[in-house]
Design brief:
Radius of gyration: 16 Å
Largest sheet: 4 strands, mixed
Structural class: alpha/beta
Number of domains: 1
Number of helices: 5
CATH class: Alpha Beta
Distance between the termini: 44 Å
CATH architecture: 3-Layer(aba) Sandwich
CATH topology: Collagenase (Catalytic Domain)
Helix content: 40-55%
Strand content: 15-25%
Amino acid sequence: MSQVHVDVQCMVDDGPEEPDIRRCIETVLEEEGITDDVELTVRIVDEDEITSLNQAYRNKTGSTNILSFPFELSADIELSDVMNTHLLGDLVIASSVVTREAHEQGKTEAAHWAHMLVHGTLHLLGYDHQHDKEAEKMEHKEITILNILGYSNPYRVKQSV
């Protein structure tokens, strides 16, 4: 397994424990066959911060559950050949939104957190869901990885009785 460095920045009083965050990310990397050393940041924030970022970077009003910022190397910068670490990027997750969605969807908070971490990590690896075929491929990956982690299909929302 590659060396995985996760910088967890928790700006709120809740959210998953760092070992749970690492486990989700490492499982994605393992399933994707990533053998390079990798580095990424997971920032857990409040709804105000995610709303500001959503407006600034996606030009969308309101909050969202997660934003993914893949690392992009500027064309005028060269990394040394000595650097063997693959910089993935940053995940920013709104804790209160994840909690609210988990309850609305009849999921455990742990299951929804795992889904957000898997979903965001796949985005950092280049997966997207802008088109039906892309979405289908990404969702299949998410379901498979979440199953490995011990969680059920996140797209099968429990019905209220």
